[in-house]
């Protein structure tokens, strides 16, 4: 049966949802529930509920998600991020009109892995600080970030407040500023733990961004692996035809994947 906008009862449900939004009782990313749960909550039939939700979905206020963690949600705005972005995430979110928050999940001091030592150009037994954080945009989980830093460069890093911009902290306390950034971007599936952190279904697509940041002398100081919810972030890249010093290049990687390289 074709869904319609319904009558007075459906209109009342719509007004109640919009009132909850304006009062802050519902926020972007909030889950309203399944169709059965919402029908019970608003004490209406499921047919009336569908009629109430249809205009809100068409207006972009609501979105439906499938899977075990699915249901109807208040739509959260997309976050736009540039490829090889050098601004910290809090500054990026603020410039886009979003609120930001950070939860530190874990910190560690340990020997670098093979991949970390190669990216940071240090000995395999050299120690690194590892910081894993959960980032929020507009109160909704956006990404899980893992950053590695060379302990010799930032000796007391783990004693500092880590809930804000790490790039700002690195600049102010250690004089480390990213002059060049290289990022590799690919699509992966969320593991059970990642899905729990990001409040999404297991195996949902994520944008995985592996990043190496270097200072003005060309020395790497950060190796990072960030996982962004694919339904919350949009990547953009601007390439100038006259910027011959940083051309776009393509090559076939060791695993057979074609890499498109944009320097920033």
TrEMBL record:
One of its GO terms (molecular function) is DNA-binding transcription factor activity. It comes from the Bacteria. It holds the Pfam family UTRA. Residues 7-77 form the HTH gntR-type domain. Keywords: DNA-binding, Transcription, Transcription regulation. SUPFAM superfamilies: Chorismate lyase-like, Winged helix' DNA-binding domain. SMART domains: HTH_GNTR (SM00345), UTRA (SM00866). This is GntR family transcriptional regulator. It comes from Mycolicibacterium fluoranthenivorans.
